[in-house]
UniProtKB/TrEMBL annotation:
<keyword id="KW-0732">Signal</keyword>
<dbReference type="Pfam" id="PF16395">
    <property type="entry name" value="DUF5004"/>
</dbReference>
<protein>
    <submittedName>
        <fullName>Lipocalin-like domain</fullName>
    </submittedName>
</protein>
<feature type="signal peptide">
    <location>
        <begin position="1"/>
        <end position="20"/>
    </location>
</feature>
<dbReference type="InterPro" id="IPR032168">
    <property type="entry name" value="DUF5004"/>
</dbReference>
Amino acid sequence: MKIKLIGVCLLGFLFFNCNTDNEPSCAEDFTGALTATETVLEGTWALTAIESSVAIDLTDDQEDNAIKDIYSQSTDCQNDAVYSFLSSRSFSLKQGYVAEDCEQKSSITGSWQLSGDILSLVNSCTVFNVEIEVNEEETAFTVSNVLNLRDIDNKIVQANVTYTYTKS
């Protein structure tokens, strides 16, 4: 299964800002100093887990061995996703840059803001809002979303998928 982590990681509500002339206008980048609650995200965060609410078999190993751990069933390149949140409010999300021999690399940059449990990212004139949960120790955060996954038998399985990012 080819998981497009970057797209999944940025899932949320997509808002386009329009003016009264019906011409698209870009979302403004976030600016200003970080609030005390936002400083928890400052730094580098690597993907360390992907868990499904239902067991699914994604590996072509000739065995029916469905499990909830999607991370262990994914390639190193698929699991290689790293967020960097800077105090300047800029962010990057890179996939395929750390793991060796990744043929596909992708990078997204923009600005960010955390308001309560909503992480807002501005990229390419668009605001993405996603609910995150930061653990009590402030060493990891999770993002969850309902997805349709295709198992090894080409069957679509709907599941709540949780991605965990751990601070480096």
